[in-house]
Structures are given as C-alpha cells and as structure tokens.
Amino acid sequence: MGRLEGKVAMVTGGATGIGKAHAQLFAKEGAKVIITTRKKVAEGTALAESIKKEGGEATFIQLDVSQEGRWKEVTNEVIKKYGKLNILVNNAGISLGKTIEETTLDEWNFLMGINSTGVFLGCKCAIGAMKKNGEPCSIVNISSVDAMIGEPELAAYCASKGAVRSLTKSAALHCAAEGYNIRVNSVHPGYIHTELTEKEAQDSGLPTEQYLEKVGKMHPIGHIGEPIDIAYVSLYLASDESRWVTGSEFVADGGYIAR
C-alpha cells in the first residue's frame, strides 16, 4: 500500500474493464484518481463514489479523447483541482473485428481517432502539465500485443496499437532529451476479459463463452487475462520504483507472443 501516495493520476476509459481496475488499484495505493470516459458517465460517476466510500479519492470527468479542445479543458480542470498531474494512463480504446477489405474508411478514422489520436493528445497535454510540477511523472500508454504481431481480422486495431507503440518511444526520448522528469512507457496486453473482448466475440459470430475458450487456448498459460493483471504492470510503471525505465514496452499476455 502507498506506492502512489501523494500522486495525482488520470485514467482514460476508466469506468469499466482495464481502466476500472487501474482506477481502483491506484486509489488503494494512495493516488488521487481522475476517471474519464466518453460515454459511460453513470458507470464513471458510480466508480468514483465507490472509491470514495472505500476511503480513496476520485473524481469523474467526461472526456472524448479524440477532441483536443476537451483534453485541454480537462487537463486545466485537474490542475485547478489538485495543483498537478503526476500520472496519465492512456487506456481509452475500442476494437473492430474486421479484415482490411471489410473495414470502411469511416470505421478506420473513428477507431484511429480514439486509439491513436487520443493517445497523442493525452501525451501532448500531460507533458505540458507535468514538466512544470518538478516531481517524478509517468505516462503509461496501453497498447496491445497486436502492436507487435498481425491478426487478419483486426486490421485497424493492429495499426492503431502499432502507432501507440512507436509514439511512446518517441515521446520518451523527447522528454529525456529535454530533461523533463517524465517517463513514458507502453503496456501490451494479450486477450483480457473485458467488454471489448465480448464485442470481438459478437463480431466473430461465436457465443461469448465459446469465443473466450477459443482465445484462451491461444495463450500458453491456458486462459485469457483479467483487467487487474494489466493494472499491476502499470502500477510499477506509474510508481517511482520504475524511475530508470522509459521508452520501454511491457508485455503481459500469458505467453501469447512467446511462441
């Protein structure tokens, strides 16, 4: 406990799934947590209240990560309320179970706007705020194993997560070159049981349980992961324990890409 004591952390896409696990864990470890989502306002508000009831500190703010103006407003609101920002977890993301031939341009642009542009805007705004506070800061970008491998039925998703992987390294090198006390790293989950996975099951035409069993067998460890498995990786990267780690990629995938 207390690994994030005194820090202010923002988690995008924080109302459910991997983001929710981050928000809950970070609050337990002492961080003041800002939960953001684009649509799930009721879930985000309820999560913030739940964290408060358990003795933590949390705030919900609605944010469409693809909108630059809204990013600026939210960042300013966080600074006004807490005086600083130490941690950003760029977690907001969507999936699309289609091949390159099936994917329309509108679908491509919408997915890229959230998965890639959203991370770019988050990093840009966070760096602008973090470089001024004089404290150790960390940006954690949630990418995917699909940034490293290709999957035929996830064309746009693979491309968007590949962009996050490369952007992370560029941003990390920039912060280091400028002498900012900001580290930037990416986390690459394998299949995690979230609403995204259930949507992929729907796109595949298989019942959810059958789809989960199918993808579980693809992981040498024998099953897919849970959101908390990713949150614990990010906790290390968000904490000062990882003070010498930047521009790196952390894979948590049950051995999926080790074969």
> Structurally, how many domains make up the residues?
1
Number of helices: 8
How far apart the termini lie comes to 35 Å
CATH topology: Rossmann fold
Alpha carbon gyration radius: 17 Å
Q: Class by helix and strand content?
A: alpha/beta
User: In what order do the strands lie side by side in the largest sheet?
Assistant: 3-2-1-4-5-6-7
* CATH homologous superfamily label: NAD(P)-binding Rossmann-like Domain
Average per-residue pLDDT, rounded, comes to 96
Would you write up a description of this structure?
- This protein has one domain (8-192, 226-252): NAD(P)-binding Rossmann-like Domain (Rossmann fold, 3-Layer(aba) Sandwich), CATH 3.40.50.
- Helices cover 47% and strands 15% of the residues.
- The protein has helices at 17-28, 41-53, 68-82, 105-130, 155-178, 195-204, 208-216, 227-238, and strands spanning 8-12, 32-37, 57-62, 87-90, 137-142, 182-189, 249-252.
- Strands 3-2-1-4-5-6-7 form a seven-stranded parallel β-sheet, sandwiched between helices.
- Helix 1 (17-28) crosses helix 8 (227-238).
- The relative contact order is 0.14.
